[in-house]
Amino acid sequence: MSDTGLHGDTDQPVGPLGRALRDYAVFTLDPDGLVTSWNLGAELIIGATASEVIGRSAAVFHTAEQRAEGHPEWVLEQARELGSHVDEGWRLRKDGSLFWAHVVTTALWSSRGELRGYAKVARDDTVVHNKLEQSSRRLEQSSRLFRDLFSLTPVALGLFDRHGTVIDCNMAMCELFGHLPERLRGSHATALIPRDAPDREQLVEAFARGVRPDEESVQEWRLVRSDGEPVFCELHIARAEQDSGEPFWVVVFEDVTDRYREAESLRYWAYHDELTGLWNRAAIPDLLADAHPDRAAVLYCDIRNFSRINESLGYPAGDEVLVALARRLEEHLPEGWPVARAAGDEFAVICPDVEEAGGIAAVATTVSRVLHAAIEVRGERLQVSSMIGAAVASESGGRGEDLVRLAMSALVRAKKTGSVGVSMAEPALIDSLEGRLRLEAELRRALDRDELTLHYQPQVGADGTIRSAEALIRWPHPQRGLLHPDVFLPIAGQNGMMPDIDRWVVRRALSDASSWPAPPDGEPVSVSLNIGELTPGYPIFTDLLERAVAESGIDWNRIIVELVETAIVDLPSRVRAGMAELTGRGVRFAVDDFGTGYSSLSRVRDFPAQIIKVDRTFVSEITTSPYDFVVVKAVTDLAGALGCSCVAEGVETVGQFDRLRSIPIERYQGWLFSKAVPSAELADLIEAGPIRPALAVAE
Fold this sequence. Notes:
Elements: H1 15-23, E1 24-29, E2 35-38, H2 40-46, H3 50-53, H4 64-68, H5 71-82, E3 84-92, E4 98-109, E5 115-124, H6 126-152, E6 156-161, E7 166-169, H7 171-177, H8 181-184, H9 200-209, E8 218-224, E9 230-241, E10 247-255, H10 257-270, E11 279-280, H11 284-289, E12 297-303, H12 306-313, H13 315-332, E13 339-343, E14 346-351, H14 360-371, E15 373-377, E16 380-384, E17 386-392, H15 393-396, H16 401-417, E18 422-424, H17 427-448, E19 453-460, E20 466-477, E21 481-483, H18 485-494, H19 498-513, E22 526-530, H20 539-552, E23 559-564, H21 573-585, E24 588-594, H22 601-606, E25 611-614, H23 616-619, H24 626-642, E26 645-648, H25 654-661, E27 667-668, E28 677-678, H26 679-688
Parallel strand pairs: 11-13, 17-18, 20-22, 22-23, 23-24, 24-25, 25-26, 26-27
Antiparallel strand pairs: 1-2, 1-5, 3-4, 4-5, 6-7, 6-10, 8-9, 9-10, 12-14, 12-17, 13-14, 15-16, 19-20, 19-28, 20-21
């Protein structure tokens, strides 16, 4: 071979090329594999000089194992056959150490096609190889850790390709679905979905598009076990990629079957009665939605004298009767007639099409016969029957909830009149109900807009000086004028508005009273509050008073809370303790309409009241009825014995006033002194001094 300038002398090129040649071992071999040239890079990498190498076989730089396997000869053979060969592996240095070599072997041919030898270019990649090897080990460790976690985690995990095929699954997933690993691997995701599931194909399409189902990372599916049992799972889905760039999905299956069934149970009992299993009151509007809009009917049924069963045999026996009636209604009414237990002993039957059933008379007869039965309970044979109120959409014009209200109103009317048979919702009843519904909506609006007002009726001493004033609610209706509480408070009570009205009364009354002037004798005028539903003594009422006192600045001892006599029956100890606490702050309690209730003297004795109000029914005839005079005298004597003061209500004539003064009574309230007036007018009366007993002008 001619001199190529690659011999082992030190006269090497300088600059980038020279530096490159020092980084690469470049040497040539003759056709037999003996070294014919050796550059500086080869000397630096292998550690042997040209004089030590030239003429020797290049195989000495292979490991013993490589030489035993014929690897050096095989490399030359590959280069001779293919023209060149790229090889990587460990090689020996002169000192016996190993380095990782990247070697390119090229066959050299003459122009006549004769093999002249081989050229080899080698690079020391030990550092790079070690780094790659470390990365590979770390990757392998990470992969092993993932496989261990994948296998051992108690959470069901599955790997799916983009087509929905199970690539792998852990034991938790196999146990969740009741399949062996070999059964799950290779199967499609749809094998986990019930065949009758309406969204079965959704998962197939989602995987086919290569996206997460519904583009959501968390979703809930109804899946199926190998034994056919449903299992509800929350799927947590994450996208990943294989080394090839092909996407796959890691899916966590969280078993939420218990949670789902609990939610289903809650949904079920939200619309079903716990005792009878029938639909409940809340379900009736939805049941009516499935009925004919113009020919539906609601029959509201009440069991006659049901309270006697509870009283004589006990509440468990009453429950047995209700369950028996529920079963009769389910078994004997035509199919498609929903039945609901609307309240204690009240049932609602819905006929979806009255015309199809032969008319409302036939429907009512059917229901009445079912509820007219002899039921044996605890050895007693009880004969039960019902009162029924009915409303038909075509006749009443009612829809949905209005139809139920009409039937209820018809039943209420039947109870009041004692009528036998079915009571129908007639036009007059419908008009009345619609009027109440309008008034209810208007009352809510008036309360929200602060359109109610309070009038105050003075309570005076024997000399006519105003000592306190009772707050009486009024509604200045824009069309109907000033409405008294007996018109709108019953509606408020039926629709859950009384607590809000109570709160409004307390805050407005204390605010008004804080602006009243003191009478000439300087004793501040108290304000007397009527509470409809909030219970004095409970924290919610105490908190309300505290806020109202703080806002108004009024003294606690100017507050009087009136309760009707019936409210003191069986007063809970908690209420009694709370009232005693308020009394300690200065609040006084009054028993209103005393003598009209059924409280015993022992209850009155224990009642934490400071004022007893004599009802107007005894005052009105006190000048002509010796009986009424004796009753009033007895009440005042009782009040004195209990340490209470007495107020006489409904004082309208001078004769009544004179008769009462002889008893005597501490305070008087009635039109003889003043009707109920707005707060500003009451302030004027207080400033004017004692009121002369003269008959006031009626409202």
